Protein 1
Amino acid sequence: MGKVTKEHINKLTDYLWEIPKTFREDMRVPARILVSEKNLDHIIEDRSLNQLVNVTTLPGIRKAALVMPDVHEGYGFPIGGVAATAYPHGAISPGGIGYDINCGVRLLTSKLNKEDVEDHLEPLSKELYTQVPSGMGKGGQIRLFAAQMDKVLSTGAEWCVQQGYAAEEELKYIESHGKLKWADPKCVSQMAKNRGFDQLGTIGSGNHFVEVSFVDEIYDREAANAFGLHKNQIVVMVHTGSRGLGHQVATDHIRIMVTAMRNYDITLPDRELACVPFSSEEGKNYFKAMCAAANYAWCNRQMISWEIRNAWETVFGEKGGQLKLMYDIAHNIAKIEAHTVKAGQEKVIVHRKGATRSFGPGFKELPKEYLNIGQPVIIPGSMGTCSYVMAGAAKSHDLTFGSCCHGAGRQLSRRAAKKSVNAPLLKQQLRERGIFIEAGSFRGIAEEAPIAYKDVNRVVDTVHSSGIAKKVAQLKPLAVIKG
């Protein structure tokens, strides 16, 4: 199978490119790339476009397989990939969701401005590092018993409300209100549950973080007002997922599917795309387990918010006010949704792996103050660069199954970053720029250095210019807590 080159790619618009079905005999639909021409050459360098072509071979895939401008290669699916398969008999593939099920982002807003916190950044960063456990395998303050674990897996963020860690009002500011109803704890292995018993309220390692930022630019005042954002305002971002529990769910069900595929006469060009019909016993069991892991992740981010609020109060007391949840959104998940395919709308299973839902105005799940604006989309950059708040747009429904990018996207592997970066020096340089870093190791700092990532400004500008989401605000970091 030949490598995709620029000669194989047709330009549809300034920001949309297509590898036609004729590229390979086994392609069921075209492969489409949302990117500017300037950044297309860089995407071609790795295996991500060949992985995208492989995705087009999934049974029941509809319309096209897509990647966002932050695309890079991953397990099976490229990261930044979107694929929709026919419901209920099309394929479901764990590789299209990823190992960190419901890795996602939430943003908390404050009443404080940049000048209010500048003299408190060091104690705030240290208190956050103390309150929010981080690092590989690190446990948290909560230890769940078996019955409690099943409740978390079934009810998601609702569990935090029931236990007094969150207000019920917050649930409407979470995608799917923090709970997928199809979750079934019985489909989650005991090994997966064991890995999650002590990890609620922890961020883990890798690219996960808690970040204190300020609003540096406002691009859309109406949307910013609706989201409760204003210039120089302090906000706190959380990026993490379902931890070891979600990883084990993926491992367990990929193993099952690799064996089960032959029962359904499924042959694929890459075993990492292992899949089964959604309607099969194996497919339904995976989806129920994935939903349970997604619920765990929403509960995890809600618990982290409780810890952040404790740290906030410790440092600022009453003058700090309350941290309000603006929104929480997943970027590694599969959802059953209705989208326009050919003649009209049909139900599809949308796989988003490193891609964020970006539904436009009028989406009924949104809180009323966001209804005329569109769904908030939170796009983190790297610890030394900016991040963005965007609003979903109607065009995304037609173009990308209601999806957009999820971040800057890696351009260096973790190994390459470690070789290239002097972590102590980077920490010092960031400190000189007014950014405090608290991390469990210099390795974590090196792996997540700004040079390891693409230019988030170009990624977001592509998304904005393509019309699938619009820029609302730019955020810049002041303190970053990592594993």
Note: The CA atoms of residues 201 and 304 lie 5 Å apart.
Protein 2
Amino acid sequence: MSVNVWAVIRREYLQRVRSKWFVISTLGGPLLILLLMVVPAYFLVRGGQAEQKLAIVDGSNVLYERIAPYLVNEGLEVEEERWYPDVVTSLRKEATEGDLWGFIVLDELTLDTGEAIVYVTTRPSPIRQLTLQSAITRAVMEYQLERLGVDAEALLSGGDLSLELLSEERTSTEEPQFWVAYLGAFFLYMVILFYADSVMRATLEEKTSRIVEVIISSMEPWHLMLGKILGVGAVGLTQLLVWIVSGFLIVAGGIPLLVSLSPGLIPVETLLPALPGIGMVTLFVCLFIFGFFMYSGLHAAVGAMCNTDQEAQQVRLPMVMLLVIPIAMVSVVIVQPMTAMSTWFSLFPLFSPFLIWARVVSGGIPAWQIGLSFLLMLFTVLAIAWIAGRIYKVGILMAGKRPTLPELWRWVKEA
């Protein structure tokens, strides 16, 4: 690679990573995730930890043994209080003196309707309130089902549904996998467009300031374009890797902490298998690289042919609107990854970075289609580089009226 290209890469990379914006956005992303997700959940759980000691007055004489184990598993200290005429007054006194957080009164009406009265000294958190309600309702249902001779435990556990597909179609409707696939595709969309736009703005800035005339006198125009794309891409890759490592650290440290505080809050058995492993992270990074090269080449050509930022935004608008299609298709592709429509849309190179990710996470794509998609993206990168390089070579030194499509075609043929 030319020494001039390395010089441009080094300048573009160092200029951006040393900026305050890069440091703030790189460190601020993980901190924002920590503040918006982990910290509120942590304090929500901590709030529930204060709601611990609970007495149960079982006037029905059949519900306590069913409710107590469930509440103990949720971190509550449960004790049984026998029914007597002044039991509510006595327990009120204990609660106000700080010996109890509260108490539950169950009676014959609870057996019929599931209604119960919970006396507490402080308002329970929504999670704790749902826990209490679920425990009472489940205990009543178990009792009534056992009276009818039904296996209550098997029925209330959700039963078992065996699914046998008559074709090779595979779908993913599990919530954790759905959100990993959807948010990953949307994140790729945002990051790729953001850094491709940075390439366009850098090109436009040098063109409008006429600095490019001095630079082009000592190097080939396509070397300048290549250096800008690789330099900005290296910045994006650096930031992406920092975010991925930070995300793993947050997950590795945050989830065990929350689980230890409240085992019922996070279904670890379903959440952990849905988290991306090393192979998935590698795929994610590769999709970013190919997507960035495709769209940065197009944006570099836009920056070279335009004279103002307003013109550039108007020209790039069709590209942005085109990308609405894969983002709108993501949820459909996740649920039905093996349909012909999902396959063809995901193999279209400009859509592949987003839809291939969605199909892989949902578990509905053969390996050969992944390889084919990367091969098609590689050819598209080379084609865009060839066309964009010719437009860049002529347009970077042009000023005045924005070229028409016939003029652009003439540039490509004659450059």
Note: Residues 169-414 form one domain.
Protein 3
Amino acid sequence: MISRRGLLALASAGALCLPLAACGGSAPDAGGPVKITVWTWKPASDGLAAVAKDFEKDNPGIKVDVQAIGNPAIWEKITIGMAAGGKGLGDVLHIGVDYLPSYTEKFPGGLADLRTLGAEKYKDAFAKGLWPTVLGKDGGVYAMPWEVNPAGLFYRSDLFQKAGIDVAGIKTWDDLIEAGKTLKAKTGAFLIGLNKPAAGSPDMDFYQMLLQQQGAFYFDREGEVTLGSAPAVQAMGLIKKMNDAGIVADTSGEGTSKKLIGAGRLAVLPWPAWAVSYIPEMRPEQKGLWRVMSPPAFAVGGKRAAIVNSTYLSVSGSSPHKAEAFKFVEYALTRPEVVNKVFRQGGVFPALTAAYADPMYSAPNPYYGGQPALKTFTDSLGEGADATYYSSDYARALKIASDAQTQVLTKGADPAGALSQAARLLAQQTNRKLAAG
């Protein structure tokens, strides 16, 4: 079975001629209200459907059909539509930051340039680091930020207390490693868990978070390969240091991570903002035991913020109702009261900075011992995170970086050597240049 990313690669080479599914985008209307379709997935679709009703009341000439296509099904469906010249696509498309560059680079015209509809006036309205990722190489605006997930460290406060560790004293990653050694000795719990024979995302999420915290990634803004850069080596070196200290649990195997969490064997979960609601659902019996903090810095006084992933709303380039589609996108993403309604009903942490003035972001959360957990993430976004440039070759980079991490964690490979080799391989396979330095 071909993977969704393999499908995208084939489509870009003109090798795809597949029939379109029946539930596609809207056709020109013969009369009556304009109808636009929105492609997304659950639970985000629940929030969008709720605000779509409000939108229709304010805009009686437009009807909105929110379709929960599913994830990952939506990526294949979008790719098939774009490969067919836009035929059958929804008018509004929910797209992840890792897929957006592939669509803009491999399917010119597949997404509408929202500059023509006034999108540029919102460039400063969203969390720092997001707007550069919606821009194409031609300067076009091909999406509007919807969801942002800043990095955080969820930790078992009871384990830290049992080990006699003052979390407030943890300022750097080296501080956390020393705390991890104490935790393991006094509680038997591992600091973090990683799938050591990594098979790709999400097994690389922690490494990517460490890159993003340094304003680095697999590629730079010019599309050159940075997998062998100093930040990349420092991030992998940090993971090796943790592993060598015996404080990293191997979470490979089905359900291993959840079992370790349930047994209190993992003291820290380096997860982004969506986990604020996910952890209580996963482990309701551990209410009051968890807390959250920003990741430590690499050096005292260094940056702690990182945006680990984000999603967007785009308008299909083939939509016969681009103006109406953008009007809905604008309504859904640029009004604090609207994006917060989506957040409450669909669990999508909003990218719109004005939304954070709502009292819910500073409200005590009983599950986290009364800590205002969401405020940790809004404070992090206030510090400012850097943009991440995924490029159209992210899937290939992810596999190569994953192989390098596996070598480091399972065979003790030197991070600098493993990543230098990985960077050269990535450059060769993608015909990209190695970034200087």
Note: The chain is about 40% helix and 10% strand.
Protein 4
Amino acid sequence: MSVALRSARTVRWSVFLLLAVVGLFYVKWFPYYGRAFDAAANHSIGKSILMGDASTAPDPSLSAALGYAVAYGKAIWKAMVLGLLLGSGIQALIPANWVQRALGRPGFAGTVAGGLIGIPGMMCTCCAAPVVVGLRRQRAATGPSVAFWLSNTMLNPATLVFTGFVLGWNWTLLRVLLSIPMVFGLGYLANRFMTRDTTAPLEALPTEVEHEASSLADVGRRWITVFARMTLRLIPEYIVIVLLLGAARAWMFPHIGPEIGEQWFWIVALAVAGMLFVIPTAGEVPIVQAMLALGMGAGPAAALLITLPPVSLPSMAMLGRSLPWRLLVSLAAAVVGFGVLAGLIASGLQMH
């Protein structure tokens, strides 16, 4: 390896690590540190983004769609920009063989590595999706990529702390006990799925390794190009789906009150609704808190706590070119299953 290429690699790695550390500190770590003290003092981290203090979401309309999209956009835009920068940076700054060595093995060890790397990211499911796109583009295996995606939300340390202070530590324990098998179990099963399914998206597994540029100017131009391409491909469809979900809130989450009790059909219905809907990081905590205050049963509340964060219709659409749709649908169904299990446990234990 030439001295110039070695020097360029050092600079590229330094830029990427600096972006990751500084970006996550500014967008996630420092704000959540202060928010944890607020949660401890006030037993709240804000109003429900779903319906505020009301017992039902606004009727489907353009106003409801725009209102939710604006509120959601204000909550996640910094993290989305960071996710796009990191996802494109992985492709422009880190050689594919490095990513493949770290996360390219389809075994359980690689899945564990992907899940552990995702924990400090603390991204919502949609903001983590561009990073997963970048990892897959650089030949990360399916299992590590899925585990990375799910661990950002389900094993988010800040959200676990918020859950304990706002809802109670029994809710945090329930979440942890189900999140660990969800993250690492579904990641491992995703590997097995891909060994049986020989078809894979071309974008996820490029057939040729792109020439590694030694010029930092070339690297910068490539980064800008990849960032623009990702943004133009992922964001428009993402915005459309968020608008549709914002308008459909009243259909997905009916009037909340004591009539939504511990019946199994409510647990299943809200598990499905939670899986499809999109929220910012930790948004499930005030949503569940508000619904419990309105008298909803613990079972449906627990189902929402588990299914709202890990996947959503927009995030699955963003990953539709990087992971097979059959796998994404299977993951969504498995998340619903975990939500139903959580609901049954919470109902049986009469959690409050």
Note: Residues 198-211 have pLDDT under 50 and may be disordered.
